[in-house]
Amino acid sequence: KAGVTQTPRYLIKTRGQQVTLSCSPISGHRSVSWYQQTPGQGLQFLFEYFSETQRNKGNFPGRFSGRQFSNSRSEMNVSTLELGDSALYLCASSPTGSHNYEQYFGPGTRLTVT
Amino acid sequence: GQQLNQSPQSMFIQEGEDVSMNCTSSSIFNTWLWYKQDPGEGPVLLIALYKAGELTSNGRLTAQFGITRKDSFLNISASIPSDVGIYFCAGQSGATNKLIFGTGTLLAVQP
User: Fold this and answer.
1) Cα A65 from chain centroid?
2) Nearest CB to B97: which of A101, A106, A108?
3) Closest to B19 measured CA to CA, from B89, B64, B79, B104
4) Percent of chain A residues past pLDDT 90, beyond the cut
5) Before A39, cis peptide (omega within 30)?
6) A4, A85, B55, B98, B108 from A22: Cα distances, Å
7) Could you tell me if B42 lies within 8 Å of chain A, comparing CB atoms?
8) CA triple B12-B73-B78, angle to 5 deg
9) B residues 59-98 near A, CB within 8 Å?
10) Is the pLDDT of residue A1 over 80?
């Protein structure tokens, strides 16, 4: 099976702009979660989507949003970018069933805000 | 944001040595996961633990789910250069896929 894919891998944006990141989960996985990784805060949970519905949300401002499509692909959007949004954004997918808490990560999108 | 206490923060060892690292939490978890991350890549799942006291192996890696459900341990035996990377623990609780990650352990292996 192909792994989790994320596009783009690298992105440079200017303060005030908005950005959309894309994630394609492992085939058959219906849950997609997003995480932000920074040197200072480590890996922090952003939100989780399951069957096109947001199931859980972390402690991030409303500028961070996401959505999931019927084919389980997911996008996350960050509006009005700030310098502190520079980070590695990771997407993870989970299988359904008894091991549905295992999460498999994509390579991430490295966002740099200047 | 919330992070689990992971120790040691870094380890510099010789090839062939065994490695131990642990993760502690003030909260109880239902699932413990261990990941390895290489530079510029996403974390790769190494071992998943589902039951208090459970001991699970994956090749040279062995992990344990602490009895109190507030801690977990990872051991790597006979380390090799490709073991280099950052190791993260992660805990999960409730009916959610939200993972709380540890602060990470940087492992360097001298050939």
Assistant:
1) 9
2) A101
3) B79
4) 91
5) no
6) 11, 17, 37, 19, 33
7) yes
8) 45
9) 88, 90, 92, 96-98
10) no
For A30: left if phi > 0, alpha if psi spans -120 to 50, otherwise beta; the answer is alpha
Among B21, B100, B38, B83, residue whose Cα is nearest residue A101: B100
User: Could you tell me the sign of the dihedral formed by the alpha carbons of B5, A100, A53, A69, in that order?
Assistant: positive
B30, B31, B42 ranked by CB distance to A107: nearest = B42
User: Residues near B82 by Cβ (< 8 Å), separated by ≥ 6?
Assistant: none
In 3D, which of A75, A42, A107, A32 has the Cα closest to residue B44? A107
> Is the pLDDT assigned to residue B56 strictly greater than 90?
yes
